[in-house]
Amino acid sequence: MRKYSKIYKIKPREKRGRFWVLSFFAGIFAIQMGCSLCCSSEPIQFETVVSDLISQLSYLVLPLVPLHLAIYLLHFRKANYDLKTFNKFFARINMKTKAGVSVLVMSIFLLIVLDDESKLENGKLLDLVIQSIAAAVAVMLFDCLKIQRNTVEDEGVVARAKHHVAPGLAMAYFRYIENVVKGVYEEDGSEINKPHEEALHEYIKENEIGSVRDWVSSKILILFPESDQIRGTVQEIAKREKEDGENHCLTLDPITHKYFSSAQPRTSVLNVIKIKDNEIKIPYSCSEGCFRNPFVKSKSIDCDQIQMRNRESLLGVTPSGLCEKIHERKEWQNNYVIFAENRPLNTLYQMVDSPESQISFTRKDFEVQFKLYYAELKRLIEEDDVCKNKVELFLYHDYEHKKSGNFSKNLKNKILEMKMRDQKDN
Q1: CA-CA-CA-CA torsion for 190, 194, 197, 200, nearest 10 degrees?
Q2: Which of 84, 185, 364, 382 is most buried (CB neighbours < 10 A)?
Q3: Which letter, b or e, does each residue of 359-378 get, where b requires 16 or more Cβ atoms within 10 Å of its Cβ?
C-alpha cells in the first residue's frame, strides 16, 4: 500500500532557499579567487586583486546576455508572437526589477561587442550570436523537461489563487451546518427545523441515555481523516465496526433535521457513534455486608459458632457482619458522539479517483485542496459566534493498518480531550 506524505506537512518554503544558494555560489567564487591569487607568480597587490576581481565578475556575467535573449525569444514563441500575451508572462515581475535587469544586460552587451576604441567588433558579435543560439537550445530543453518547475512553489501559487474548489465547498458545507446548528425559521418566525441543541435534548430523552453512565457530546464533530484510503463516510465507519481492535458502533437512530432548500423539502442526518471507555478498576474501602454470612446470627451449637467466627476472620468480616477490606470495582462510561458526514471531502476523493480523461486532479492537487478546505471551513466556523461553540473539526491520521483499531483509538483520544475541556470550563 502506497504511503503519501502527511497532508499538513505541506508548506511553501517562502523563498528561504535564496540565502543558501547565493551563499554557495559566493563561497565557490571566493575559493576560485583565492586559488587564483595564491597560485600566481606575481606578488599580491591591491591593484592586482581589484583587477582580477573585475575580470572574474565580467567573465561570470557574460552569459547573461544570450540567456536573457533566449528566454525572451522562447516566451515570445509561446505567446504565438503576440505582444499582449507576451507581456502577460512577465506581468507579475516588479517593474524596477525588469528595468534593472534590462539596463544591466544592455551594459554587458556593449561591453562584449565594443572594442577598446568603442567600435563594433564583428568577431565578438558573431560569438554572441553563437552563444545566444546555444542558450536558446538549452532553455528550450529545460522547458520541455520541466526542470525549472518547482512543485512546492506551484502549490504555493495554487494556495494563493482565487479560483479553486476548496473555498466553494467550504462555504456550501458551512451553510448546511449553520442550518443544522441554528435551526431554520420562516419569515413570520414559525419554526421549520429545530436548533441542534433542542433536537439533541429530545434525542437523549427518547433514547433514555441521560444517566450517569452515559456521556453525550454537545458538539457536532466533522471528521477529517488524513489518509490514503479512508474517507470517513458513514458506510466505512459501519464497516469498520467488525474489524479487529475496533469497539465503536453506529446507533440505529440518527438525529434528523428537516428544512427547505430551493422550495424543496430536505432532511439532514446527523449520525451517532457509541463507544465505551476502557474499563478501569478503582479500589475502595468496603463498609457493607458484602461477605456477611446469613448464618452468623443464627443460633446453633457452640462448635458451629466457633467455625463461623474463624471463617469471618479469614474473610475480613467484623463480628457485626460488615466488610472492612479494600475491594475493586470496574467503571466505564458509554460515550455518544454526534458527527456530520463530510460530503465535500468525499467529493474531493471522487475527483482523485476519476479517470484522467474526465478530470485532471492528481493526489498532489487533492492534498492542497484538502488543506485549503480544512482551513477555510475552520475559519468560517470560528468566525460564527454560535457555530464555534457547537461544531468541532476532528483532524486525525488514519494511515495505520485496518486491524489496529485505529479509528476507535483516535475517537477515544478525542472524547477524552473534549471531556477534559468540559471539566475545565465548568
Answers
A1: 150
A2: 364
A3: eebeebbbbbbbbbbbebbb
Residue 179 CB neighbour total at 10 angstroms = 20
**CA–CA gap between residue 232 and residue 242 (Å, rounded):** 16
Report how far residue 413's alpha carbon sits from residue 406's, in angstroms, rounded to the nearest whole number.
11
pLDDT digits (tens, 9 = 90+) for 44-93: 777 777 777 777 777 777 788 888 888 888 888 877 778 877 777 776 67
* Matching residue, cell 433514547: 207
Work out the angle between the directed axes of helices 151-160 and 363-383 (0-180°, nearest 10). Answer: 40
Q: How many angstroms separate the CA atoms of 271 and 336, rounded?
A: 10
Q: Which three cell numbers stand for residue 364?
A: 498532489
CA 107 to chain centre: 49
How far is residue 363's CA from residue 352's CA, in Å, rounded to a whole number?
A: 6
| Cβ count within 10 A of residue 250 | 16
Residue in 269, 243, 265 with CA at minimum distance from that of residue 255 = 269
The mean predicted confidence, pLDDT, of the chain is: 76
Q: pLDDT for 170-193, tens place per residue?
A: 999 999 899 889 887 777 777 777
Closest CA to 290 of 320, 317, 330: 317
Its pTM stands at 0.55
The dihedral through the CA atoms of 384, 385, 391, 394 has a sign that is: positive
DSSP H or E run through 330: strand 326-331
Residue 338 pLDDT > 70, yes or no?
yes
